[in-house]
Amino acid sequence: MARSLRIEYPGAVYHVMNRGNAACTVFHTQDDYQMFLDLIKETIKKWDISVHAFSLMPNHYHMLVETPLGNLQRAMRHINGVYTQRHNRKRKKDGHLFRGRYKAILVEEDAYLVELLRYIHLNPVRARITMSPQDHKWSSHRYYLGNGELPWLATKRLLAYFGRRPNLARRKMHKFVLEGVPEGLERRLKGANWPSVFSSENFEEWIKWNFVKDIEDREIKYESAEPNKIDEKELIKIVSEVMNMSWREIANARGREAKLMRGLAIRCFRNNIRYDHEKLSSMFGNIHPTNISRALNREPEGYEHIWERLQIEIQNAQNAKRKT
Length: 324
Known about the structure:
The protein folds into two domains: 12-211, Alpha-Beta Plaits; 232-317, Orthogonal Bundle (Chromosomal Replication Initiator Protein Dnaa, Chain: A). It has 15 helices and five strands. It has helices at residues 30-47, 72-91, 111-121, 123-126, 141-144, 156-159, 166-178, 183-188, 201-211, 232-243, 247-251, 256-273, 277-283, 289-297, 304-323, and strands at residues 12-19, 50-57, 60-67, 103-107, 197-198. A five-stranded mixed sheet has the order 2-3-1-4-5, with helices on both faces. β2 (50-57) and β3 form a beta hairpin. It is elongated and about 70 Å long.
């Protein structure tokens, strides 16, 4: 059986999970849990990753990991390998601790990320380790609520989805988590067959175009390509020409029509260059991440002709690049 698809590129975000070999215990004591958290901190420093969420249970763990350098495999090899060494040395054992390779789902941003934050934070509740997520000492939920400090944990990006003011964002995030995981997501992540990509159709198309020759054939060797088929300067030029507006007018939109045009431009940059919310916000007048999400989810009603022309011009630019 072929291994599941593994895709790496700078800025990719993953839901990562691994379980003890034959469901064995991997965290026996409080010291073991702390040893793993210390190792995450060490890995962040060594491999320049970001960890947005985690949950540790006696026989497995979940993490939400961002890789600015596109190096998930190196980082996870370090975490799993070094923890196994330290665990076995402590107990005078040898052999495998984890059951083979970790599982990893490549995650599209925004709503998908916060859904997985909820899924990860509710894991101890599903496992009946605790009645409420904030009571589990070894998950990031309590830190998102401001109960304790963990300097290496990256909370700002996902909290921003719930509001600008930290206290209000924490309350909204907690309420969102307590509402529970949607049945469809629970079903999708249950069992052995995790999806390789958790995303919208547009994101999956982008993955296919950039990384996979034939996504249905799991036996082939997948080769990464350069993620950006079109650069920022080119895309700004195309968007400005199609909309017949200066970039400044688009980025700093004033008025309903200009804001709708800005929304189409945001979708272009998200779909074609994969800019995250932080980058999109800085490009478009520092608008709030919630407004970015609205722009990405809004259909171009009334402006379908502009959206279609944008797609044609972008496709033409990409085709020209392929020929060079």
